[in-house]
Amino acid sequence: MRTVFSIGLDAVSYGMVLFTISIGLSIMMGLMRVVNLAHGAFAMIGGYLASYALKSLGFSYPFAIVAAVVGTIAISFPFEILFYRRIYRHSEALTQILLTIGITFVIIGVANFVLGPTSKPIPLPPALSGPFDLGFRMIPTHRLLVIACGATTALALWLLIDKTEFGVRMRAAVDNGDMAEALGIRTQWIYSATFALAVGLAAFGGVLGAEMLPIEPFYALRYMVTFLVVVSVGGAGSILGALSASLLLGLADTTGKYLAPEYGEFFFYLAVILTVFLFPRGLLGRGH
What we know:
The chain has one domain (about 1-220). The protein has a two-stranded antiparallel ribbon. The protein is mainly alpha-helical. The mean pLDDT is about 90. Strand 1 (about 130-135) and strand 2 (about 140) form a beta hairpin. The chain contains 13 helices and 2 strands.
């Protein structure tokens, strides 16, 4: 029973990392109809900024997270103005894929040139780096923070998208942009705000999840498929779907590595195949 609880706890913490990073991609793909394969690159930028803020500027951990989120949004906006605005509403998926892959390689190239091909650790404060006694096992306190942040993020996004005027306007702008503009909705502002939200979530997740998904120059390519898988399994645009998919895949991956580590990520992708076979449009995509 202790093993079961341990697997469950590690699965939830890993799943929350996947959710926090991937939910921004789900919003872009499901609500804005943009296949943003540069999402992982923005998560990587957030991790680099947090590492610099902590190690070189002496920021506290919470302020480093804020600086990373704000800084990543600021860095991403030239891309949004020059490139992403050209693919909102009026482009094919292949165009979006080629453009955002190109942006990914540009960011990777700059990161390698400026920072070198080494990983960048994000130091944790003593309150988060120590163990926490749950009775049946010790767990890094940071993982409890990850679980709490993931749950809070899911709730906050659900309230924002489903219960606020901004969410209503965002869905209207995506579903019928011309009609929304005719009704006085500033669709370009909505698109830019949603892009900033998605990028900010990527940076936030990149910093929080750095203990499990280390920040290094090829981070964007190494985990791009993982983030896409979460969105595909959960259903693009669904907060609950992304959360369910993240926890399901976290459980599959963690259980496999506990019980049969020699199989690597076999159980992770087996769960993906079975879920997509049973739910071709994702667990809870907007089309359901």
